[in-house]
Design goal:
Blueprint: H1 7-32, H2 35-40, E1 46-47, H3 48-54, H4 59-72, E2 75-78, E3 81-84, H5 86-93, H6 95-108, H7 115-121, H8 147-160, H9 163-170, E4 177-181, H10 187-195, E5 200-205, H11 207-219, E6 226-230, E7 246-250, H12 258-271, E8 277-282, H13 291-308, H14 317-326, E9 329-335, E10 344-350
Parallel strand pairs: 4-5, 4-7, 5-6, 7-8
Antiparallel strand pairs: 1-3, 2-3, 8-10, 9-10
Helix pairs in contact: 1-4, 5-6, 6-8
The protein binds S-adenosylmethionine (SAM).
Length: 353
């Protein structure tokens, strides 16, 4: 954003914020009513009259949504002929945009009204629109639809892209036993089993998540290679067991406040030997190549505030490195922006006395 706006420009920018939520919903309606797809099917443009005739939406509805879409730059209109713009194309076809839009609409939108209260109380006050849990993690596998599908698509979209390169890094030293901390549905553990036929895994997560991971592992016939360890890592008395060659934390530490991260990493430190490698995979918002990624990650922090737990966020790379050191590890290697993903891997070792 340029800094030296004129007063007229600044006033316009302020209105974009004031009316932002309603414009957002107008694009959801344009998409869900099939109008955007219909326009996109006519590369050379299509008349407003034809749109009204062909899609089952009133003249009032079509005109209203097109007027909003034109302001947003989602469509271009000239002499009553409508064409999809580049932005409109991304809204319709780009996977990251689809996943982000659905996450916003299905998981965050209603709860976002509780932003101020969430910050004041340090609790996810918006979460009550989805269910009665202290944090979203107790409810993940039992979220109402469409929130559940949108949450998992959002989570998996970001971590899945990182897996192929992450596997190469993590398996360089051929670990025999890997702990997947916050292993969720088990996707990473299954990818590890595919990658190395000898590796054994222990998935550590809250009990409600382990039920899902265990069900998935059963379906894949992997119960002889994957064990499950129920743990609440916010309870410092619950110890991570010893014996891992690799402790893996993927998109996990961003679920916690700085104080909680230190506590969890200290727990990992007591479980680690001098031969254990701790790998942390995180999307750091200040270490991105594209402004769309930085923008999305900062918005994800706001989701943590209102819906997830009220006290966590996406972090800067150096902040996470500092927490790692405070907990008793040293960062021996940093792998920035691996593969096609938004993630950095920190390879850490227990600091030797
Ligand atoms: C954002 S998901 C990350 C999932 C997966 N590792 C990935 O990269 O897609 C965070 C995971 O941490 C787990 N989790 C959250 N709070 C936890 C806690 N207090 N103790 C143990 N696991 C927790 C959640 O159940 C969830 O599976």
């Amino acid at each position: 954003m340029k800094k030296d706006l004129s007063a007229i420009e600044a006033k316009y920018e302020a209105q974009k914020i004031a009316f932002g939520p309603m414009y957002f919903q107008s694009v959801i309606a344009l998409r869900d009513l099939g109008i955007l797809q219909f326009i996109s099917n006519h590369r050379k443009g299509v008349s407003i009259e034809t749109i009204i005739e062909q899609v089952e939406v009133s003249e009032y509805g079509v005109n209203l949504l097109l007027e909003a879409a034109e302001i947003l730059g989602v469509v271009e209109i000239e002499n009553d002929v409508v064409k999809i713009s580049k932005t409109g194309f991304f809204l319709l076809k780009d996977e990251m945009t689809r996943v982000n839009m659905n996450f916003m609409n299905d998981v965050c939108y209603l709860g976002a009204k509780n932003m101020t209260e969430s910050i004041v109380k340090g609790k996810p006050e918006g979460l009550k629109v989805l269910g009665d849990w202290p944090t979203i993690y107790e409810g993940l596998s039992i979220l109402p639809e469409p929130a559940k599908t949108s949450w998992f698509e959002f989570d998996h979209y970001y971590s899945d892209n990182a897996f192929p390169d992450a596997l190469k890094i993590v398996f360089r030293k051929k670990p025999k036993l890997l702990f997947d901390v916050g292993g969720n549905t088990g996707k990473w553990s299954f990818a590890c089993c595919d990658h190395d036929p000898d590796v054994k895994i222990k998935v550590l997560d809250l009990p409600v998540q382990l039920n899902v991971a265990k069900g998935n592992a059963t379906a894949k016939g992997l119960l002889d290679r994957i064990e499950f360890h129920a743990i609440d890592l916010l309870d410092a008395s619950q110890k991570i067991p010893q014996g891992a060659d690799v402790i893996w934390m993927s998109q996990f530490l961003d679920c916690f406040s700085k104080e909680e991260i230190i506590q969890i990493l200290k727990n990992a430190c007591q479980a680690a030997s001098e031969n254990t490698t701790l790998f942390i995979l995180e999307p750091f918002f200040d270490n991105q190549n594209y402004p769309a990624a930085h923008y999305s990650l900062v918005a994800t922090s706001l989701y943590f505030t209102i819906m997830a737990n009220g006290n966590s966020k996406m972090y800067r790379l150096e902040v996470m490195k500092d927490l790692v050191v405070q907990a008793g590890f040293e960062v021996v290697e940093t792998y920035p922006l691996i593969g096609d993903s938004y993630h950095t891997i920190l390879e850490c070792r227990k600091k030797q006395a």
